Amino acid sequence: MSFDSLGLSADILKALNKKGYSKPSPIQEQAIPAVLKRRDMMAAAQTGTGKTAGFTLPILDILSKGKPPATKQVRTLIITPTRELAAQILDSVETYGKYLPLTATVVFGGVKINPQIKRLQKGVDILVATPGRLLDLHHQGAVRFDDLEILVLDEADRMLDMGFIHDIRKILSYLPSKRQNLLFSATFSNDIRKLAKTMVNDPVEISVTPRNTTADTVKQWIVPVDKKQKPELLAALTHKHKWEQVLVFSRTKHGADRLVKQLDKNQITAVAIHGNKSQNARTRALALFKKSGVRVLVATDIAARGIDINQLPQVVNFDLPNVPEDYVHRIGRTGRAGEVGQAVSLVSADEIKQLRDIERLIGRPLERRLEDGFEPDHDLPASNSNVGVKKSNKPNSGGYKKPSNSNNNGGNRKPSTKTNYRNRNKNKKPSSSGNN
Ligand code: AMP
């Protein structure tokens, strides 16, 4: 399938062509036509799937066919949990909307509010915002939602994890009830579904797993081990296989911190990223890991989501996730771009339920390999015998290939506060020259 057949306007196709995209990614194939039909949507997709273009492209198309915004009004509101993500989305909007006479801006906390108030004064077609600053601006009367046409909630699960639920509900209460709603989340927990119920109306549901999570690109196995032996086992495996860049997943923030200390005792350099760490600390840890300053990055699922680390040879599940879909997301971090990656899970007897859920989801049992000296006292019970009968999660297919040099996450990048990428009135000077 090509972008031409999705119903996007010529100006958008031109921008895609310039960007060098030849084919839509699976989520784009599904999302673009549905959004253009003005349907509500719930999409399970994480960073790397092309989800941003999945909602940005049809939104640009829709907005370009309508009326410009009135004073202080916003036509599309995109809410994201972090300023990095917000800045990154504005970047995409600017890139894909290059040839359209639309306006967009981004607002987030931690920077002066007055310039943001100024930029909102004339109204904008697209506003990308983090929740807290958006509420501030609304309370100050700097932004109005009477004419809002489309709402996007991006990375909804991370938003809830960061404690934004109250802010989100407040924002929702300020929006007109007739609007199009698009909700994106890496996973759909009960909490997300509960929120979705109050937000979307007869949504199209889309689910894509990260690419290359199939057996041929990721070698997966589990090592049965007693819980208390896990840190030693991880250290032994790291030394034995001479792993130099390992992404280790920990279910809890506390567990992640503890593990870093335990690895340290075994002369293995490690850093942790999780929700209790400041954005700066996370960015620093990630940068250190990326330039191979440390061997092990220990991450919780939420913290790992949205970070762009390409082609990691080795992923370790220090413990199994409670949500089986998270296993698929985790191992999607390795084996990218045709490389064969390895995903090893350290599994103790009390995790048999999680293991069975994962095996049911991926449709096959995971190979078990005992490590010498780490044979468990508490045996890991057998897996389900009927695994493989029902495969509930189809791996993606299609020609979408994420550019290997893309650092779409902007983890180290200073967020841009640039406003209109092209002025609606072509006779006026563009906003970057400071007239906004
Ligand atoms: P996202 O999942 O939205 O964070 O996007 C992941 C990366 O894929 C970004 O660097 C995009 O620029 C890139 N991308 C998105 N759609 C396509 C496509 N159809 N073809 C090639 N690259 C794409």
Describe it.
The protein has 436 residues and is α/β, with parallel strands linked by helices. Helix content is 34%, strand content 15%. The strands form two sheets. Strands 3-4-2-5-6-1-7 form a seven-stranded parallel sheet, with helices on both faces. A seven-stranded parallel sheet has the order 10-11-9-12-13-8-14, sandwiched between helices. Residues 211-215 and 388-436 have low confidence and may be disordered.
Stretches where pLDDT falls below 50 for ≥5 residues?
Answer: 211-215, 388-436
Strand order of the largest sheet: 3-4-2-5-6-1-7
Instruction: Work out the helicity level.
Output: 25-40%
Number of helices: 15
Gyration radius, to the nearest Å? Answer: 23 Å
Category from helices, strands and their pairing: alpha/beta
Bound molecule kinds, no repeats? adenosine monophosphate
Q: Give the overall silhouette.
A: elongated
Please outline the major beta sheet.
7 strands, parallel
| Helix-strand pattern | HHEHEHEHEHEHHEHEEHEHEHEHEHEHE
Q: Kindly, what is the distance between the CA atoms of the first and last residues, rounded to a whole number of angstroms?
A: 40 Å
Strand content: 15-25%
Care to count the β-strands? 14
User: Kindly state the mean pLDDT as a whole number?
Assistant: 83
